[in-house]
TrEMBL record, chains A, B:
One of its GO terms (molecular function) is L-glutamate N-acetyltransferase activity, acting on acetyl-L-ornithine as donor. The gene is argJ. It holds the Pfam family ArgJ. This is Arginine biosynthesis bifunctional protein ArgJ. GO terms for biological process: L-arginine biosynthetic process; ornithine biosynthetic process. It is found in: Cytoplasm. It is an enzyme of class 2 (transferase). The record marks 192-193 as: Cleavage. Catalyzes two activities which are involved in the cyclic version of arginine biosynthesis: the synthesis of N-acetylglutamate from glutamate and acetyl-CoA as the acetyl donor, and of ornithine by transacetylation between N(2)-acetylornithine and glutamate. The keyword RNA-binding does not apply. One of its GO terms (cellular component) is cytoplasm. The active site is at residue 193.
Length: 411, 411
């Protein structure tokens, strides 16, 4: 977990901010009874809300319904199932809308104030019966300590829950922002992401909230790649219930907006690292730090190209300092750069090692390289010397287990 | 091997056209003495020549030297080593130029008439000594039956030689076009390709030859992807020595140009299929056929997006009819299409099966799907209903062996 000055990491997940309850249960969409498959989050008060969605032309039905429900910038609850994406189904939108209706009824609030999401296999008809028959149980299970259960229920091939909450001061009031996410496979977000549900007790206008979310997602989730496949169901939503009692943040020009944005960045950056490190089959978290690019956009293109290269990812799995593949991925990234100035450094807790200077190899100790690459968190530092652009991207290695998991996902 | 009317498939590889000798030897760039690592092709006469190169910003040193040597559109010989890419080396260009000089001396022809190429690890200094000490042996080994030895010597992780030769009539004369290629990993050509060396005895002006090559490469090699990584050393060259005796083809408007282009297409299309089917670790050749796209460009984008998806490639390895991943890859391709009209059919020698209609799933027999996907050659047919654009792309499945080969390539 990366810490930031002025921010305190706290436990409790999406229930860490005031006035948010959550729960997760097994309802039967998944056959495995040991795996929770239905999650709910509910705020004590109506919230300002914002969301970003996948840019895939094929959009999951829940996304279309959520977009509709968030048009007024308000929401109070979230319902999510795992095990079925409810995507590419002729009856998908009707089923997603029914999920909102079921949740609204159980919580006694308007269905238009419900955010709905689904994750799992594409193109299999979603049965509503398990959700209908477990909605009451789920609503009753809601508690101020239920964040972890909810974080568990949204997982698919993830191996661990992904939760972050940070506490900070806003105009003399203690505010909290929290998020839970699922990632693992089909992860290469574009303008939106895998599933992520955030809560905050800060008071913030929904238009300003949307701006903060979109800005921060561009530098966090959109810089993660597990396998280059942009999912059909990516969504990140945030609900702000204002119960921290801070004066409403209603402008992006205020100091409070900056503080809020920074805290949100800390939450999403940490979730991004968790998603990358827990990519399907992954044994290593890879972080590519690009500096000296012509501008930020070019730095982003390069960082993401390196982190997305299958060949580079395999080399990291093999703990092989095959830096030529990094140069190759920089070269085909279509970024604007002078390849003759490129410098590459491999770094981890075991130390740092320069492997490339002026676009050509330098003599290095293979022994030292092996030590560095043995670690579970590897940093690839690319210095370009072309300007002031910098960016960070996160990914993971490509392993036998990725192939295993995805060679037989449906069965 | 796909056959075309009016074209006869013949043996002999790059030596099938009149007046071309070839050879392949082990010179010692590779440690494994059983593996040939140095190839040569030589024409009895000076040829019109053309080539296309990688669009990677990082370009192998041999590419820069070959570009220089082909400026006058003439060449007579090719020298290629495997085991070392001679790329990202400070002394790379000097070494590549020296390879031309060594070949020219051994063959008694100007070094400017030599095409040079290298394939293997990036960023390791190329030792010239093995080439110097074996140049005479290689030149002496040249023969009209040496095509297969040359095709063998250029392989890296390929599991088989890739050679095609076709014979056809041109203005009453029998002409032959042949090619040998290597592929396997770092294969996602962009405007050029993996290594491919073609020979023909047709008489054709080098500018017209360049046009034919560029056009055909766009529909063949540029539609192949093994792993999404565009290599630094991709190159495809062709030498035409005119010994078939046909009247010189000096215009793209002629009927003879069309016949030549079609024969060249047959050679490169078959080599493309061989490269895809022999991708690193591959167990299956995947062919994605897109029809009904708005235009050819959109059809190409969609076909290539499907064939490049890691998730789809893993599903094919697992023989799992997970068609949702095909829809997902179509959706993020950025192509212009109406997703609600998409139809997907899986096909192989075992039969055909529709799995998706109007962008949604249709009920299908999993048993039948399993039978179809058991085959080694799988066709994915995507019908869009948006227009007349069509395209074909070739790829392979993503397997444990891909990860194995690339987790430890250098050692």
């Amino acid at each position: 977990m990366i810490k930031y000055e002025g921010l305190e990491l706290v436990s409790g997940g999406v229930c860490a901010p005031k006035g948010f309850k959550a729960a997760g249960v097994h309802c039967g969409i998944r056959k495995n009874r040991a795996k929770k498959d239905l999650a709910m989050i509910c705020s004590d008060q109506l919230c300002d809300a914002a969301a970003v969605y996948t840019q895939n032309l094929v959009k999951g039905a829940p996304i279309l319904v959520t977009q509709q429900n968030l048009k007024n910038g308000k929401a109070q609850a979230v319902i999510v199932n795992s095990g079925n994406a409810n995507t590419c189904n002729a009856d998908g939108e009707a089923k997603a809308a029914a999920m909102c209706e079921i949740a609204g009824k159980a919580l006694n609030l308007p269905e238009e104030d419900v955010i709905v999401a689904s994750t799992g296999v594409i193109g299999q008809v979603l049965e509503l019966e398990p959700i209908v028959s477990h909605a009451e149980e789920l609503a009753k299970a809601l508690s101020y300590e239920g964040g972890h259960d909810a974080a568990n229920a949204i997982l698919t091939t993830d191996t661990c829950e992904k939760e972050v909450a940070v506490r900070f001061e806003l105009a003399g009031k203690t505010c909290t922002i929290a998020g839970m996410a699922k990632g693992s496979g089909m992860i290469h977000p574009n303008m939106a992401t895998m599933l992520c549900f955030m809560t905050t007790d800060a008071a913030i206008d929904h238009e300003v909230l949307q701006k903060a979310l979109s800005t921060v997602v561009n530098d966090t989730f959109n810089m993660v790649s597990v396998d280059g496949d942009t999912s059909t169901n990516d969504m990140a939503s945030i609900m702000a219930n204002g119960m921290a009692g801070n004066p409403l943040i209603d402008s992006v020009e205020s100091e409070e907006y900056e503080l809020f944005r920074e805290a949100l960045f800390a939450v999403l950056m940490n979730l991004s690292r968790m998603i990358a490190g827990d990519g399907e089959g992954a044994t290593k978290l890879l972080e590519c730090v690009v500096t000296g690019a012509v501008d930020t956009q070019n730095a982003k293109i390069i960082a993401k190209s390196v982190i997305t290269s299958n060949l580079f990812k395999c080399a990291m799995f093999g703990e092989d300092a095959n830096w030529g593949r990094i140069l190759c991925a920089i070269g085909y990234s279509k970024a604007d750069l002078d390849i003759h100035k490129v410098e590459v450094i491999l770094s981890s807790e075991a130390g740092s090692l320069q492997v490339c200077k002026n676009g050509a190899g330098v003599a290095f100790s293979e022994e030292k390289a092996a030590e560095i690459l043995k670690e579970e968190e590897i940093k690839i530092i690319v210095n370009l010397g072309d300007g002031n652009g910098k960016a960070v991207a996160w990914g993971c290695d490509l392993t036998y287990n990725y192939v295993k998991i995805n060679g037989d996902y449906r069965t």
